[in-house]
Structures are given as structure tokens and as C-alpha cells.
Amino acid sequence: MIAPKVLNWASIIDDATVDQARALARLPFIHQHVALMPDAHLGKGSSVGTVIPTRGAVIPAAVGADIGCGCSVIRTNVHKEDVDTNLASGRTLAELREAVEDAIPMSAGNYNTRFGRYEFTAKRIAALETMAADNDVDLSHSPGWREQLGTLGGGNHFTEACFCKDDQVWLTLHSGSRGVGNKIAQQHIKIAQQLCEKWFVPLADRDHAYLPEYTDQFWRYIKDLRWAQAFALANRGEMLDRFRLVFAEWMGLDPDKIESDRIESHHNYTEQTTIGGKTLWLTRKGAVDASPGKRGIIPGSMGTRSYITEGKGNAASFHSAPHGAGRMFSRTEARKRFTLEDLERSMTGIEYRHGKEWIDEISAAYKAIDVVMEDASDLVTVLHELRQFLNVKGE
Questions:
Q1: pTM value?
Q2: Which residue has the higher pLDDT, 257 or 113?
Q3: Is 174 known to be catalytic?
């Protein structure tokens, strides 16, 4: 314990992140303590890699702007020898990368324009429309939300093809609720700040502004939040299905016969739960559910390894685990420290989108995933270790 009401699992952590957790833990509705995951680092209002149990209130800014962001993966029955045979026949990984880029719009603001391209898209849109109507979710702030379904975004969002230790191919993906989720988040963050100002609530940080459970604004947020989480899950499912199709086509296989398993995991979200016999709201800001037996995905940084895990149900962490490697340097600092040549060296042997746009995603800008996983040894058991052979990111 590094402060009253703060528990820390990170062996690599800076004072600013600790101070941020301490300030958050002083809020009167925090239950027991705040938990810092092994990948914890400085964030907006509260640190990324923080688990926040609250009684009778939720902090919209702690959930963050990318509601429902997370990872989803497909385990295929394709093996490395099959990929090697395909490459020996003249196919290239660059062709696969370009096919992924064609199927999945990349980068911020780049959305779908061809709705009829995939038969499964319309079903997902219809389900989201029904959920919005049934729960009176107002999406007038995002009239183009349908075009955002099946789009990756930029930053640390990615699609990857990996081999595990038994040489099976896994298709992995990291993304969230895109522009519509951001609009929902910003709307409710502003409402929480306005209410706290109206009530003269003293806050160490404006982004600690909260919505009390007894207010209409709280339940409006929960309805919108749940829709955004559903959108994020559908968004990843949409992209994974497109990835599955283009990978199967590249391999010359039937896309309906290559998937053997699928795992899905949020890491920016709030859910109602029971802890110690009390009904609470648990916010995971950059953390995954590690309940007993729960499978999760902990991706490493660009060019390193990722992990499929099983939760150990550590009560002190509120059944949580890290969501990735966690940044060591900000994007601005990374661009000062590293060069395009550094990035190219770090990605040796991996097909990826070359360019200075991705310097700030270099693995050296993140904590070492080996250290993060060692710190998480009492939180999860590693089921599969994945190594990338293809990485695709938006700008």
C-alpha cells in the first residue's frame, strides 16, 4: 500500500501517477481503495490502469472518452506452416496488410462509405438501433454513427495477426466506441462538472466531477454508457469478421471454417457489481476483468508480445488485471526520443505500415510487457503467448 486507500501493482511507476491515485482515493464515495494496475500511468483526471469502486456515484471522466475500448481476438485453426506455404507460393504479407487496410477504415475520422459490402454489418446496426430506441438513447449528436461501425481509429488501436507457441494463428484487434462514444462521454463529463459546480462541491480535479445515483442525470448516463459499450463490442466484432474474411481469402480458405474460438474484453468501462455484500459501481480505466476463470487479452506494445489470460479473482484488485503495457513516455516525448530508424529496427521481421506517423507507438515508449506480466502474476494466469507477424495501425 503506497497511501491510505491506494493499492499498487506497478513496479514501474512515477510520482505523478501515484499522486493522481491519491487524489482520486480521497473522494468520499470511493469504496475501500483505488487499485493501480501494473501498467498504470498518468491520465486525464485519473490514471490509465486504475480500478475505481464507487458507492452511489460514477465519475464519467474516469470511464473516459473511449467508452468500451478493449480487445477482441479470434483463434484460428490455421498454423504457421500453412502461412509459410502460402508465402512460398508467391503471396506476400504486404498483400494481406493492404487487404486489411481496404476492409477496415483506419485513422481518426475515416469512416465506412459502403454499407452493403458485408452481409453482417446491417444486423449489427439494426441491433444497436433497437437498443437505442428501447432505452431512449439520444444519438442526435452523432448522426453518422452508423458509418463509424467497423472502423479502427488511430493511436494505439491496432489489428494484428500473431502466432502462439503452438504456431496457431490468432487475429487480434484493439479499438473502442469511436466518435460516437467520445460524444457521449464529453456530454456527460460536462453535465457532471456543471452539477458539481452548481452544488459547490470541492474537487481536486475538475475531471473528478461525478453523477450521484439518486439523480436523473446518473441514470441517463448509465443508459448512454451501456449503449456505447455495446457499440464498442459490435465495432470490434465487425472488424474481426472483416479481418477473418480477408485473411481466409489471402490463405485461399473458407472463412466460415477457420475460426475455432473468440474472446472479447472491455478495458474502459463501468459496471454494477457486488463487492463484500454491497452493490457498487466498478470503473476499470485501462483494466480488464480478471474474475476467477475469466479469459482476457493483455496486448503488448507494437512489435512485442501479447497474452491471453485467465483471471485468478484477486479480491484486492477487485478481480482486475492490466490492459496492456502502459506508456512510459507521452507521444510528444516519444517523438523527441526516438527516430524512424529506431522504429524500423524494433519491427524487424514484422509486416507493418512504415512511416514516421507511428514513431510515438514504438515499443520503447511503453513499459516492458515482461515486467507488466510479472507484476500481474497474482492477478492472472497466462494461457497463450502471442507474437506478431503482421501489425496494422491507423495514424
A1: 0.96
A2: 257
A3: no
